[in-house]
Amino acid sequence: MEFEFVRNTLMGEYYVKCSMGHEIVGRWLQDEIGRDFEKIAQVEALCDLARVHPQQEHVLPGVEISLSIVGDEVIVQENVLSHGYELEDSSEFDFYDCESTASCGLEDFEIMIERWMAFLTNR
């Protein structure tokens, strides 16, 4: 997973750009976590817990997008997808689903969180 962090110094805003197929991860980091250092610490603690108990699912629910870690796989998904609505012809929504959920390895995810923290603190 490739990612890039951008800072708009005039507006004081921070943006996350992720590679195609992982856009939802960038949206989650930007919108659900942002510059909230307590939430970043929660995410880091969740990653640590997932390493200790890899057989369990570890979840950090968000307002619109949630994080789930099972074993060494991280899944970021829009909450609307977890409601289990059955669509008659889901092929129309395949592209939407592709932009609404993504997975990556725990190690890659931890690197992104670590670099986000460094980016925010200018390290």
What can you tell me about this protein's structure?
- Belongs to the UPF0231 family.
- Pfam families: UPF0231.
- This is UPF0231 protein DZ860_04980.
- It comes from Vibrio sinensis.
- The chain has 123 residues and is α+β, with helices and mostly antiparallel strands.
- The chain has one domain.
- The chain is 40% helix and 27% strand.
- It has four helices and six strands.
- A hairpin with a 4-residue loop joins strand 1 and strand 2.
- Helix 2 packs antiparallel against helix 4.
- The longest helix has 16 residues.
- The protein starts with a strand and ends with a helix.
- The mean pLDDT is 88.
> Between the first and last Cα atoms, what is the distance in angstroms?
22 Å
The main sheet comes to: 4 strands, antiparallel
Strand order of the largest sheet: 3-4-5-6
Using the alpha-carbon principal axes, give the shape.
Answer: globular
Which regions are unreliable across 5 or more consecutive residues at pLDDT < 50?
none
Task: Indicate the radius of gyration in whole angstroms.
Answer: 15 Å
The helix tally amounts to 4
Number of domains: 1
Whole-number mean pLDDT: 88
Q: What is the N-to-C succession of helices and strands?
A: EEHHEEEHEH
Family: Belongs to the UPF0231 family.
Protein name: UPF0231 protein DZ860_04980
